[in-house]
Amino acid sequence: MLPYMETNPVVSTEVPEDGEVMAAVENGRRDRFIIADVTEDEAYVTLPLNKAASLPAWR
């Protein structure tokens, strides 16, 4: 398991119909890629930008 990943994530059993997920790049000493569900508190994951898949790799 990667050191920046949560070791015991909670799996949601229900998916809200009005959920909204967004992605962003945070520039700083270490650039980070962030994916967040903006309809839930603390519902996000981050990883180093150089570890994030490029758009063509997701296809």
Query: Between the first and last Cα atoms, what is the distance in angstroms?
Result: 25 Å
Strand content: 25-35%
Order of helices and strands: EEEH
User: Can you summarize the main beta sheet?
Assistant: 3 strands, antiparallel
Q: Keywords for this structure?
A:
globular; mainly beta; three-stranded antiparallel sheet; 59 residues; 7% helix
Question: What would your notes on this structure say?
Answer:
- Helix content is 7%, strand content 29%.
- The protein has a three-stranded antiparallel sheet with strand order 1-2-3, with no helix packed on it.
- It has a domain of 38 residues.
- The chain is built from one helix and three strands, in the order E-E-E-H.
- The protein has 59 residues and is mainly β.
- The longest helix is centred in the last third of the chain and has 4 residues.
- The model has no long low-confidence stretch (mean pLDDT 80).
Summarize this, please?
This protein has 59 residues and is mainly β.
Give the SSE map.
Layout: E1 21-26, E2 32-37, E3 44-48, H1 55-58
Antiparallel strand pairs: 1-2, 2-3
